[in-house]
Amino acid sequence: MNRVVHFEIQAEKPERAIKFYEDVFGWKIEKWEGSSMEYWVIMTGDKENKEPGINGGLLRRPAKTPPNECGTNAFVCTLVVNDFDASSMKILHAGGIVAMPKFAIPGMAWQGYFIDTEGNTFGIHEPDPNAK
């Protein structure tokens, strides 16, 4: 547990970003119709050929980007945890802060986002088919 299992790319123009990543890396990107928000699923590996990959998602950028040459803010990694609430308490105790409170991905998991002591955003994900 506690390994990176998902990443997200934020995009001002999702269609442009989708074309870029499909053209450059050959990723398969499809709109997630079951989501309550505009969201695309990114498949980086090939299950048929047993080619591993960390899969991800793409969403419309919720805030402005920093100026060029300022580093990154667009890729967010999510780590799988056994217990969302216990992990959240550890994060807060270590100096992290909540960026987006715990929410259900219905039928899949509990998800939330935090900011570490260096200003980096990351997510935690507790699988739970009963989440709603």
Q: Can you characterise this structure?
A:
This protein is α+β, with helices and mostly antiparallel strands. It has helices spanning 14-25, 84-93; strands at 4-11, 28-31, 39-43, 56-60, 75-80, 97-105, 109-115, 121-127. It has 2 domains: 6-63, 2,3-Dihydroxybiphenyl 1,2-Dioxygenase, domain 1 (Roll); 73-132, 2,3-Dihydroxybiphenyl 1,2-Dioxygenase, domain 1 (Roll). Strands 2-3-4-1-5-8-7-6 form an 8-stranded mixed beta sheet, covered by helices on one side. A hairpin with a 3-residue loop joins strand 6 (97-105) and strand 7. The longest helix has 12 residues, at 14-25. It is globular and about 45 Å long. The protein starts with a strand and ends in a 5-residue tail after the last strand.
How are strands sequenced across the largest beta sheet?
Answer: 2-3-4-1-5-8-7-6
**Beta fraction:** 35-45%
**Distance between the ends:** 23 Å
Q: Do you know the CATH topology of the largest domain?
A: 2,3-Dihydroxybiphenyl 1,2-Dioxygenase, domain 1
- Structural domain count: 2
CATH class term of the largest domain: Alpha Beta
User: Would you identify the regions where 5 or more consecutive residues have pLDDT less than 50?
Assistant: none
* Rg from alpha-carbon coordinates: 15 Å
Instruction: Summarize the biggest pleated sheet.
Output: 8 strands, mixed
Find the CATH superfamily of the largest domain: 2,3-Dihydroxybiphenyl 1,2-Dioxygenase, domain 1
Instruction: State the total count of DSSP E strands.
Output: 8
Could you report the average pLDDT, rounded to the nearest whole number? 86
Structural class: alpha+beta
The total of helices stands at 2
Helix content: 10-25%
CATH architectural arrangement of the largest domain: Roll
Which outline best applies? globular
User: How are helices and strands ordered from N to C?
Assistant: EHEEEEHEEE
